[in-house]
Amino acid sequence: MSYEDLEDATRTMWEQYLPEVFTDHEWLNPYRLAERMGLKVTFHLLYRRKKNRGLLFWKDGTQSLLNRKAKQYPSHYTSSRMKRYKDDIAQKKVCADCIGGAKGYAWTNGGQGVLEAIGTDKGISNKSGANSCPDKGANSMFAWAKSKGMEWGTIDTLPEIIGLALQTDGHVGYYVGNGYAVEWRGFNYGCVRTKVKERKWKYWYKLPFIQYGAAAADIPAPEIALGSRLLKRGMEGSDVKALQELLMQLGYVLPKYGADAKFGAETEKALRAFQKETGLTVDGKYGDRTHAALMDAVADHDAGKEPAEPDEPSEPSIARRVRIVCDGGTVNIRMGNGTQYDRITAARDGSTFEWVATAENGWHAAVVGARVGWVSGKYSKLV
User: Fold this and answer.
1) For residues 95 and 271, which has the higher predicted lDDT (pLDDT)?
2) How confident is the model at residue 264 (pLDDT cuts 50, 70, 90)?
3) Which of 196, 270, 291, 303 is 20 to 30 Å from 24 at the Cα level?
């Protein structure tokens, strides 16, 4: 089934069973849809991570459950709410409990008990108190987590960590990243995804029985190959650090900050000096042509030679091209003028590219797609 077919089928289902959703988004929740379709919602897999699974943990609404919860949380179960809940139970509705999300996760062994029940007739495997998770309410769970020495803070310091509990008086939600949370909001809403900034959360905290991953700020930045993107002032990354190291290798000093992986005024000044000395456009930006010239200069430096002075054009030159010559096969295009550099792509025999420069070792730099790559002179020639 194509994406378009799936989209059409989904729209048809909503139109048939819950047309109100097209005029009022408050109707957009799984319980109402299931009710119209004559289905009984017992659980729903909400999202999955490598180590953590979040579950929409529902329970059948029964009078005994209502009585037990009213005794457990008397301040919440007022007479008006008790009346409404009894009506909901009479209509065979199911309930969604905010702290039940955490307890359901822990008591079903990280959702494994639910996963084992999918596609079978057996009930959900769960055990109250499993994984050291007590049967507590939203406020007392927060107090218990703090007593266990778990990290917590005010909502304005919320780190980008999946699965953090979000707390306000009498209610808890769970952070799912990118500024969103999931909440179990009783009979009226069910389980919904909401924007953190649009809700009145006061605190965040870690639950003792959850194995959390690293915060985004603690995850090492990915390695970025030098020459794979345009660099300019204000950018950061491993490729900026590589540029700084090569500039210093060629004698361009960075006395204040050195190779700090941050493209600041000092790095721009050194790059402009390099561009001026090699006859490039002096713009302080590290693009394809500057990359090709720098690789050429580094190769000359490593060979113990001074970088060649740019030729003074005596007259307008005709644009040259590099033709691939490899007896019907393909040849690798690399990021620098040697096989030690990473491969960018491969070019077929007979294909031609705009020539940029030629290194002392005979390798040609050419514009391949939107970037400059190098090809061995053994498998190419200028035309």
Assistant:
1) 271
2) very high
3) 196
What is the C-alpha separation between 178 and 145, in angstroms, rounded? 24
Neighbouring residues of 158: CB distance < 8 A, sequence distance ≥ 6: 164, 166, 175, 196, 204
Q: How many CB atoms lie within 10 A of CB 42?
A: 16
Residues 171 and 273 in one domain: no
Q: Helix, strand or coil for residue 190? A: coil
The answer to whether residues 165 and 117 belong to one domain is yes
- Asked whether the beta carbons of 83 and 36 are under 8 A apart, the reply is no
| Edge-to-edge strands, sheet with 53-60 | 43-48, 53-60, 94-96
Three-state secondary-structure class, residue 55: strand
CA distance 300 to 292: 12
Q: Which of 243-247, 273-277, 319-323 is the least confident region?
A: 319-323
Question: What does the alpha-carbon distance between residue 3 and residue 11 come to, in Å, rounded to a whole number?
Answer: 12
Q: Average pLDDT in the 137-149 region?
A: 86
Distance CA 201, CA 33 (A): 28
- Taking alpha carbons only, the member of 49, 88, 47 closest to residue 189 is 88
In degrees, to the nearest 5, what angle opens at C-alpha 309 toward C-alphas 342 and 337? 15
Query: With contact defined as beta carbons under 8 Å apart, do 135 and 103 qualify?
Result: yes
Domain that holds residue 281: 238-302
pTM of the model: 0.39
User: Is residue 57 a contact partner of residue 184, using CB atoms and an 8 Å limit?
Assistant: yes
CA distances from 292 to 39, 244, 335 (A): 64, 15, 9
Backbone φ and ψ of 117, nearest 5°: -90, -15
Average pLDDT for the chain: 75
Q: Are residues 174 and 251 in the same domain?
A: no
Residue 152, CB half-sphere, CA atoms under 13 Å: how many?
22
What six digits make up the tokens of 209? 């029985």
